[in-house]
Specification:
The structure is a homodimer of 202-residue chains.
Chain A: H1 7-31, H2 38-45, H3 52-55, H4 59-82, H5 88-105, H6 107-114, H7 120-146, H8 155-171, H9 179-197
Chain B binds a DNA duplex (30 and 30 nucleotides) through residues 1-6, 9, 13, 16, 37-39, 47-54, 58-59.
Chain lengths: 202, 202
DNA sequence: GGAAGCTATGAATGATGGTTCACTTCTTTC
DNA sequence: GAAAGAAGTGAACCATCATTCATAGCTTCC
């Protein structure tokens, strides 16, 4: 036994892997999945193309990891916001606002997560991601119904609609260059979301 | 001048072209853009791969034509439904129902038009397609506002939300194997759409 | 019927881009 | 410091398709 990984070496490898994921994420954010070749990602990380395969068994595996990290972050944030104190209606409004604001602030990533053409493997992850988003929204809608704040409805459909609506608004340059129009867009989006769930008009 | 296209020959060519487009459409409907290779499409049309280039200058040109035909049909149908007699609210309900029903009845095509990974050229067409869909919905929403049937709102956002919502519900197998669940889904979708636009509860 | 021009063919071509692998470089251990 | 083993390299490899092109097969016209 002439060689054993030392803790320092292990953490160096781990760091290299993380660095690679970060680089890949930024490449995807900037140019999308379809343009993110192994070479481009490796260049961005400052390593050779072949070295990518020290950390991932295939390009698809790296892509899935990149997607999971970013998507996981978003789901987590939304989940936290939706579970903060407040009535279901208030939480729904806040959730939509945060979802949309984060997406608008990082459009490239939002587009990559929600809509950009990608490997089938990433496509499958995307379905799962949307499903989780929907489940979070649906839960709050159901609470609203139970508390009598929202009318009876299929919460899953409302939740799907909210996800689809925010996505749709983002993907197409419907707006929001500057601060002002972004704010207006968010206000309108939240209003739309509350109507969609059937919240009483304020 | 020893040769000139005779009318019969011209219409034979035209028919061959149409046949190719139809075959390509069905391939795309069944397996999606990414799997629709020139060879697969040509096989489906019963011609050689090279012959595709007698009718289209590139695969992308054929893809765009396929998209335009299918998308154009859908936009046309929606436009007609939305301009039938009735209040804006009634027309909105009917429009969403028709949009969703058609999509559910031909899921493969709907998916190809709305969401499936595709060439950049098709992606650009898709943006335009969604824009037209939105414009149609937005027009009716604006009429509803003017007639005092809908509350003041950003009609573009509501229209985008409706498009996104229907698309989202379709893409994921949220439901609708049989007749019964399809009907229920449509009812819920329409109800959601009316809430979304702020129509008074029925 | 046959010359001229067009369409159809499908194997060859070429570009792209993921993956491999013989080799180099760095780490560990003694 | 030297042997052993791991990580890093990047040029070569390979698979996948879109596209081309020399050739064969039809149509037209006289």
């Amino acid at each position: 036994m002439a060689y054993r990984k030392t803790p320092a070496e292990i953490s160096r490898l781990e760091a290299a892997r993380e660095h690679l994921i970060a680089a890949a994420t930024s490449v995807v954010t900037e140019v999308g999945w379809s343009q993110a070749s192994v070479t481009a990602v490796a260049d961005s990380a400052g390593i050779a193309a072949g070295s990518v395969y020290q950390h991932f068994s295939s390009k698809a595996a790296l892509a899935v990891e990149v997607f999971r990290r970013a998507a996981g972050r978003e789901v987590e944030v939304l989940g936290e916001v939706l579970h903060e104190p407040g009535t279901p209606v208030e939480r729904l409004a806040r959730g939509v606002e945060v979802f949309a604001r984060r997406a608008l602030e990082n459009r490239g990533l939002a587009y990559a997560l929600l809509a950009a053409p990608a490997d089938p493997a990433v496509g499958a992850e995307r379905l799962e991601f949307r499903r989780r988003y929907r489940a979070l929204f649906a839960e709050v809608v159901h609470e609203g119904i139970e508390e009598g704040l929202l009318p009876a409805q299929n919460g899953e459909i409302t939740a799907a609609a909210l996800t689809g609506a925010v996505g749709e608004v983002l993907v197409d340059p419907l707006g929001a260059r500057d601060e002002e129009t972004t704010g207006a867009l968010l206000t309108e989006l939240v209003a739309m979301a509350l109507r969609c769930a059937g919240a009483p008009r304020s």
